[in-house]
Design a protein that fits this description.
The protein has 782 residues and is mainly beta. Strands 35, 36, 38, 39, 40 and 41 form a six-stranded antiparallel sheet that branches. The radius of gyration is 65 Å and the shape is flat. Mean pLDDT is 77; it is low at 1-20, 264-273 and 647-764.
C-alpha cells in the first residue's frame, strides 16, 4: 500500500514537472526478482484517451489492475513464479501497445551437501578434501559466479572461501578434526542480481567418506562355497560393509547374485581386526563370480567401491544340474520308435572332462553319446531312459525321463492357443481331466535344435526367440514321474515382419496406364497385407497421387494422365506389422492414341479393298465390252439398199396406238432438219422395225400431223447386195444386212430413209445396234 502511494506521488510530481508532456510508458524496466516475490508495475497512459488493459506473455488480464488517476494505472503481481515474462500495457480503444517491460526471476542455491574425503585412496591418512555441491535453478542464460564460504565451529576464526562457475567446489588442504562441525552457505552473483543460499551445518563425522577396501580376495574352500575377504586401510571405528556380487549366466549375460546366497559375518568386528570375510553359499558350478566391496562408518558416507575381483567356481555334484527331455517319433514299420534325447549343455568353462551315457530299462547296453543330444531306438513298450553325467574328479549325476507305451492311455492338453509379439510367444492351454503335476513346453524353429521349460500353470511365456522365425510348440503334461500325451500347437512366428517384396510392371497408353505387381517372399514370417497403395506423380516434383486397393487386388488402372509425359510410380504394401515399398518405376505415356492408328489402318484397308474390287469390276466390264463384236457400218450394204429407195417413203403402221401417225417420214441429209428419235406406239419396240439408210447424213424426223396414213411398202434389195439378214442367237430379224467386200459407189444425193415395219411373230430379245455417221460418210466417200 505504501509503495502504491509512493509511486502515485512520484507520478504526480513527474506530471507537474513535465507540464503538458503527453507520454506513455511502463516502469520499472527489466526487473529481476526472486521466485515467489511480489512486484508492482505502473503504466503511464498520458498519450491516449480512455482505459488501458494488461497482457502477460500476450495473455490479457485485468483482475489485479488498479487505477490511480486518469493517466496512471498500477498492476500488482504477487508470488511471481514465471521464469521470464513480458508485461505490456495496451489501449482499450485501439489495442495499441503503449509500453512494456520484462520481468525475470532467479532462485537461491538449495540442497547443499558436503563430503570430507581423501586425496589418495590407496594411502592411509587424515581426510584433506572437502567438496560441496548444490542445486541452482537457472531460467536465464546469464553468467553466474558462485562463492562458497565454510565456517568451522571449533576453529572460530577459520573461514574458507571457494569460487566456481559450476555447482560444485572443492576445498583443498583442509585440516580439521572429524568431531568438528561446519556451516556452509553459497552466494550466486550476476551483473543484475545477487542472492545467498540458506546456511547449512554439518558434522564432519557424518560427512566423512572412508578409504575404499583393498586387497580383495576370493577363495573356494568347500565345493559350492566361496569366501570373500579384504583389508581395511583406516580402522577408525567398527563399520558396515556391503558386497556387490555378479555372475555370468549360462547365456553369457551378467546378472546379480541372489542376496540370500550372501552371508555377512563381519558386521561387528572390532577395530583391531583389519581383515573381514563374507561367505557366499550355493554357488553354481563352472560359473564366473565377480565381487567388489565398500564400507562406511556408522551414520557416515559409503566409501568408493573397491577394485573388482573375479573367480571361476569348480564343478561339483550339487552345482551340476541336468535338465533332460526327449522327443518320440511315431512307430515305424520295423516296430521301433526313435527317441531324440537332449539335455542342457554343461558350461565349457568347467575344468575337467565330462562323459555322457544313455541307459534303457530293457537291458540294452549303454550308449555313449555326445555333449548335448543322443538318438536311441525303442520298441512299442514303455521305457525309462537314464542319462549319466560323469566327471573325471570322481562324481557323477543321473537324470531319467519316461517314454510311455504306444497303447498306453495318457492325459492330453487341449485348446492350445498362441500369440506372439516382439520375439516373445505366449502359450496357453486347457488342462486334462486327470490330475497333472506340471507341464513341459518344448519348441523348435528348425526341427533340429530344441528348447524346453517346465510350468506349473496352464500357460507359459517363451523368451529369447529368433527374430521372424516360425516355431513349432508342443505341450506335454507330467503325472508324477511319468509323462502324458504330447499335443502340438499351430505353427506361430516369433514376430511378423514387413510384408513381402513387390515387383511392379507398367503398361502405358495414351492417357492411362495399367500397373500390376507380384509379391516375392522376404521371410517365412512376412506380415499379412491389409491393402496396397499405388503412388504416382508427374515429372520430378509433381503432386503425388495415390490409389488404394484391397489385399486381393494386384493391378490398378491409372486414368486421366497427360499424353507424352513421364511419370514415376511405386507401390506400398501395408500390414499391421509394417510397410514394404517397391522400387520406383518410370514410364512415359504415348503421344497419340494407339486406337486411332488402328482405326486408320482398318479404314485404309477397307478403302483399298473397295477400290480394288471396283477396279476389278470395271476391268471385267471393259473386257466384256472389248470382247463383244461390233459391226462396222462402213462395210454394210445398207447404204446401197437405201440409195435404191431414196425417193420412196417408208411408212409403218403402229400396232397399238392408232392416234399416232401411221407413217414416220425419214428425211434425207439435205433436208437440214434436226435429227430425232423415231417414236411409235408404247407397245412397239425398236426391234419391230427395219431401217433403210440412203445417206450417212440422214436424220430421223418426226412424222407430219397432216399426212394421211400410207401403207408400208417393202422395197426389194439392190443388185449386188446380199439379201440375207444377219441373225444372231436365233433372232429372225437383224438390223444389218450381211456385209460384203463388194463396194458399190453411191452417189451423194438427197434420198429418203424409209422405215419398214416388220412385225415379229415371236418375242425376241432386243439387240443393240451401233452406228456412227462417220462410218457411213466414209462409205459414201468410197
Amino acid at each position: 500500500m505504501y509503495a502504491s502511494v509512493f509511486i502515485f506521488i512520484l507520478a504526480g510530481i513527474s506530471s507537474i514537472c513535465a507540464g503538458q508532456n503527453n507520454t506513455c510508458n511502463v516502469f520499472p524496466k527489466d526487473k529481476y526478482i526472486e521466485v515467489g516475490e511480489s512486484i508492482t508495475i505502473t503504466c503511464q497512459s498520458s498519450c491516449i484517451d480512455g482505459k488501458i488493459y494488461w497482457t502477460l506473455n500476450n495473455v490479457k488480464f485485468n483482475s489485479l489492475s488498479k487505477t490511480l488517476n486518469s493517466t496512471h494505472t498500477v498492476l500488482s503481481l504477487s508470488n511471481f513464479t514465471h521464469p521470464s515474462a513480458t508485461l505490456q500495457c495496451h489501449s482499450a480503444k485501439t489495442h495499441q501497445v503503449i509500453g512494456g517491460t520484462t520481468i525475470g526471476t532467479y532462485s537461491k542455491p538449495r540442497n547443499i551437501s558436503c563430503t570430507l574425503h581423501h586425496t589418495y585412496q590407496e594411502e592411509a591418512g587424515v581426510p584433506d578434501l572437502l567438496t560441496c555441491t548444490w542445486e541452482h535453478q537457472m531460467h536465464l542464460s546469464v553468467a553466474v559466479t558462485y562463492t562458497v564460504e565454510i565456517f568451522f565451529h571449533l576453529e572460530r576464526e577459520m573461514i574458507l572461501h571457494c569460487k566456481s562457475q559450476e555447482t560444485k567446489c572443492t576445498f583443498k588442504e583442509v585440516i580439521a578434526s572429524p568431531t568438528d562441525s561446519v556451516t556452509v552457505w553459497v552466494n550466486a552473483n550476476t551483473d543484475v542480481w545477487n542472492v545467498f543460499s540458506d546456511n547449512c551445518t554439518f558434522k564432519l563425522r557424518n560427512i566423512l567418506k572412508t578409504l575404499r577396501p583393498k586387497e580383495l580376495d576370493v577363495t573356494e574352500k568347500n565345493p559350492g562355497h566361496l569366501v570373500v575377504s579384504w583389508k581395511r586401510l583406516s580402522p577408525l571405528d567398527p563399520c558396515d560393509c556391503e558386497v556387490r556380487c555378479s555372475k555370468v549366466s549360462a547365456k553369457g549375460e551378467i546378472v546379480e547374485c541372489d542376496r540370500n546366497e550372501i552371508e555377512n559375518t563381519s558386521t561387528s568386528i572390532p577395530a583391531t581386526i583389519r581383515h573381514w570375510s563374507i561367505f557366499i553359499n550355493n554357488v553354481e558350478s563352472c560359473s564366473t563370480y565377480t565381487f567388489s566391496v565398500r564400507c562406511a562408518l556408522e551414520d557416515a558416507l559409503w566409501s568408493d567401491w573397491s577394485k573388482e575381483k573375479s573367480h571361476l567356481t569348480k564343478p561339483h555334484k550339487k552345482g551340476v544340474s541336468v535338465d533332460l527331455w526327449r522327443k518320440v517319433s511315431e512307430l515305424g514299420k520295423n516296430g521301433l520308435r526313435k527317441v531324440h534325447v537332449m539335455w542342457m549343455v554343461i558350461p565349457s568353462t568347467c575344468e575337467g572332462t565330462f562323459k555322457y551315457t544313455i541307459n534303457q530299462t530293457t537291458g540294452v547296453n549303454s550308449k555313449l553319446c555326445g555333449n548335448t543330444t543322443c538318438d536311441v531306438d525303442i520298441n512299442q513298450d514303455a521305457q525309462r531312459i537314464t542319462l549319466t553325467v560323469s566327471h573325471d574328479k570322481g562324481f557323477h549325476v543321473e537324470k531319467s525321463v519316461y517314454v510311455p507305451a504306444v497303447s498306453e492311455s495318457l492325459p492330453e492338453v487341449t485348446d492350445i492357443r498362441t500369440s506372439s509379439n516382439d520375439n516373445i510367444i505366449q502359450v496357453s492351454w486347457k488342462a486334462p481331466v486327470q490330475p497333472v503335476s506340471k507341464y513341459v513346453i518344448d519348441w523348435t524353429h528348425n526341427g533340429g535344435q530344441y528348447y524346453w521349460k517346465e510350468s506349473s500353470y496352464t500357460n507359459a511365456t517363451l523368451f529369447d526367440l529368433l527374430d521372424k522365425k516360425p516355431y513349432n510348440i508342443t505341450v506335454t503334461p507330467l503325472i508324477d514321474d511319468k509323462t502324458g500325451q504330447s499335443a502340438q500347437a499351430v505353427q506361430v512366428c516369433s514376430r511378423f515382419g514387413d510384408p513381402d517384396g513387390i515387383a511392379i510392371r507398367v503398361e502405358a497408353d495414351h492417357r492411362s496406364a495399367s500397373v500390376s505387381w507380384d509379391t516375392t517372399s522376404q521371410s517365412e514370417c512376412s506380415g499379412a497385407v491389409i491393402n496396397y497403395t499405388v503412388y504416382y506423380y508427374e515429372g520430378q516434383n509433381g503432386p503425388v497421387l495415390n490409389v488404394s486397393v484391397d489385399s486381393k487386388t494386384k493391378n490398378v488402372s491409372l486414368k486421366d494422365l497427360n499424353p507424352d509425359t513421364q511419370y514415376t510410380v511405386y507401390v506400398n504394401a501395408t500390414a499391421l506389422t509394417g510397410r514394404t515399398k517397391s522400387s520406383e518405376r518410370k514410364f512415359t505415356t504415348k503421344k497419340f492414341d494407339p486406337r486411332l492408328l488402328t482405326v486408320l489402318i482398318v479404314s485404309g484397308t477397307i478403302v483399298i479393298i473397295l477400290v480394288l474390287l471396283l477396279g476389278l469390276c470395271f476391268a471385267v466390264q471393259w473386257k466384256k465390252f472389248k470382247d463383244k463384236p461390233v459391226p462396222n457400218p462402213s462395210l454394210s450394204s445398207v447404204g446401197v439398199w437405201a440409195a435404191q429407195n431414196q425417193q420412196k417413203r417408208i411408212c409403218f403402221q403402229p400396232f397399238s396406238n392408232p392416234s399416232e401417225s401411221p407413217c414416220d417420214t425419214v428425211y434425207p441429209e439435205n433436208s437440214q432438219s434436226t435429227p430425232s428419235l423415231v417414236t411409235g406406239s408404247e407397245t412397239n419396240t425398236a426391234s419391230d422395225y427395219t431401217e433403210d439408210y440412203t445417206n450417212s447424213g440422214m436424220t430421223l424426223a418426226p412424222h407430219l400431223q397432216d399426212e394421211s396414213p400410207v401403207e408400208p411398202v417393202v422395197m426389194p434389195p439392190s443388185p449386188g447386195e446380199s439379201t440375207a439378214l444377219i441373225s444372231s442367237e436365233g433372232s429372225p430379224v437383224n438390223p444389218y444386212r450381211s456385209q460384203s467386200s463388194v463396194e458399190s459407189p453411191v452417189p451423194r444425193a438427197t434420198k429418203q430413209i424409209k422405215l419398214v415395219s416388220v412385225k415379229q411373230q415371236e418375242k425376241t430379245p432386243l439387240k443393240t445396234v451401233y452406228v456412227t455417221l462417220d462410218m457411213i460418210k466414209q462409205d459414201h466417200g468410197r
